[in-house]
Amino acid sequence: MTNSAGKEALKLIPSVDEVLSTSEIQDLRRRHARFPWTYCVRRVIDDVREGRLGAIGASRDQVKALVVASVAVRVNELKSGGMRRVINGTGVILHTNLGRAILGDAVCGVVGEAMAHYSNLEFDLKTGTRSHRGETLTELVEMATEAESAMIVNNNAAAVYLAVDSYSPPGRVLVSRGELVEIGGSFRLPDILEKAAERTIEVGTTNRTYIDDYARDARAGDILMRAHRSNYDIQGFTHEASLKDLVALARERECHVVFDLGSGSLFDFAGIGIEGEEKVKDVLATGVDCVTMSGDKLLGGVQAGIIVGRARFLDRLRRNPLRRTVRVDKITIAATQALMRAYLFGDDLVDDIPVLKQTTDSMDGLRNRAVRIRDGLPSQMQKAYAVKVVQDEAAMGGGSFAAHALPSIALSFHCGKDKEASALARRMRNCPVPVLARISGNEVRINLRTVLEREDDDLLRELEAVLGEPFGPDRGH
C-alpha cells in the first residue's frame, strides 16, 4: 500500500463516539456499566490504525464493523480469558507453561483458608506480640531436609541471587562452563550471576571439569557453585568434580560451596527406579554450605525458592537488605507449610502429593482409565478417528530427569493428514475446559499420566463435544 493509499484508508476509521453509539456497544454498556468503554474503544482503534488487527476494509462501514467486533472480542477475552483451568494431556508432569505441580487436597484446603480468613502471619498467639513470618515453616523445612538452617523466598532464581549477592564482596563465583544453563523463558544462570556477583569465573570445559580447574582460581571468600543442568544431560566423554572434592577445596581455601539444585527432592525417586536426582538431605550431608531449590517442581508445592544449609552461611543472607524484596506472602507460607507436614507426618506420601502419584501410577491403572474413556465415546466417533489405547512416554519436566522417560498410556486419535491433526488439537484447546494434547505425525495423543483421575469424566465430555463436530470437507464427509 502506498503512503497516499494508507492515509486514505486511515480516514475510514470511525471516531470513538461513532463506535460507542452503535447498538452492539450500547447493549454491552448496559450490561457492564462500570467498564471503561471509551478507553477500550480507543485502544482498539489504535490497534486498527497500527495494522495489528489486519488490513483495513474498503469502506467506512466495513472498518466500523471491524472495530465494533474487535471491541466485543476484547471484552469477552477480558471477562473469560487469561489464566484458567486446562486438562493436561501432553505427558509432561511438571509443565512450566501449565503451572508445574498440582497441589494435594490438604494443601488446597489450607490455601483456601488462608485466603478467606485472617491469620497469625506475624503474630505470636502465646505472647500476644508481633512475631516473624514463617517461623514454623522454617523449622518444618529444616526437619524435612535435616538442615541446620532454612529460608523461603519467592522463587529459586531469587534464592540463587540472594545467596551470591550476600557474599559480595568479595563477590567472586567459580562455576563450570557445563553448568551455565539456560532454562524456560530465556532465563540464564550467567545473567543472574552477572548481576549478583562482582565477577563470574568460568572453569573447565563444557563436558569435562576437574577439581584442579576450581583450585587454579579459588581463593578465600569465593563461592564455588554447582548448578543442576536442568533441561539437558551431557553423556559420553564427561567428567565433573565431585561435591566431596569441592567441599574439601572450599575448606582448604576458606571458600563456600553453593549447590543450585533446581528442582530439589525429598522423595526417594531412585527407590522406584528413576535415577538422576539427588535428595536434598544427601547433598547437605556432603558438607556444602547452601542448597537452593524450587518449591513447585519435584517437591510438589507452590512457587517458592527454598534455601537450606549451614546456619552461619544463611545468617548472612538474612542480614541482606534485599531479603525484603523477595519475601513470600501468606499463601506461599500456608501452602509450603502444609506440604512439609505431608512429608513429615502424612500417612501416604504418594496419595498426599499429586506429583508423586502421577510419577508412580501403574501402567495397568493408566490403561484401564484410557479404555474406560475410549469406550465411553459413541462408536461412530471411535470409528471416525480410529481411537486407540496406545503405549506412550511421559516426562517429568520442570528441569528434572532430563534423560529419563516415563512409560505411559495414551488415547490416540488418527487423522487423515498432518494438518487435520493440528486442526483437531486446536479444537480440543478451544473446549470449555481446554484439553491440551500432543501431535505425533497424523495422530493426536492424550497422555493419561498427566490427566488427573478425577478429570476423566470431564475429558470424556469435552471429547464427545469435539469429536461430534462436523468433520468438514477435508475429511471427505
Biggest β-sheet strands, sense, barrel: 7 strands, mixed
CATH topology of the largest domain: Aspartate Aminotransferase, domain 2
Would you identify the regions where 5 or more consecutive residues have pLDDT less than 50? 471-477
CATH C-level category of the largest domain: Alpha Beta
Given the C-alpha coordinates, what overall shape results? globular
What is the number of E strands?
18
Distance between the termini: 41 Å
Secondary structural class: alpha/beta
CATH architecture of the largest domain: 3-Layer(aba) Sandwich
Strand percentage, roughly? 15-25%
As laid out across the biggest beta sheet, the strand order is 5-13-12-11-10-6-9
Estimated helix fraction: 40-55%
DSSP summary: helix tally = 20
> If you compute it from the alpha carbons, what radius of gyration comes out, rounded to the nearest whole angstrom?
27 Å
Q: Provide the number of structural domains.
A: 3
Write up what this structure looks like.
This protein has 477 residues and is an alpha/beta fold. It has three domains: 3-80, no CATH class; 87-95 and 357-475, Aspartate Aminotransferase, domain 1; 105-352, Type I PLP-dependent aspartate aminotransferase-like (Major domain) (Aspartate Aminotransferase, domain 2, 3-Layer(aba) Sandwich), CATH 3.40.640.10. Helices cover 41% and strands 18% of the residues. The protein contains 20 helices and 18 strands. It has helices at residues 3-10, 16-20, 23-31, 37-49, 60-80, 105-116, 135-145, 156-165, 189-196, 211-215, 243-253, 280-284, 311-318, 330-345, 349-352, 354-360, 363-376, 379-384, 418-429, 456-467; strands spanning 87-88, 92-94, 123-124, 129-130, 149-153, 172-176, 182-183, 187-188, 199-203, 223-227, 256-262, 290-294, 305-309, 388-397, 400-414, 435-436, 438-440, 443-447. The strands form five sheets. A seven-stranded mixed β-sheet has the order 5-13-12-11-10-6-9, with helices on both faces. A five-stranded mixed β-sheet has the order 2-14-15-18-17. The chain has a two-stranded parallel ribbon with strand order 1-16. Helix 4 crosses helix 5, helix 7 runs parallel beside helix 14 and helix 17 (363-376) crosses helix 20. It is globular and about 80 Å long.
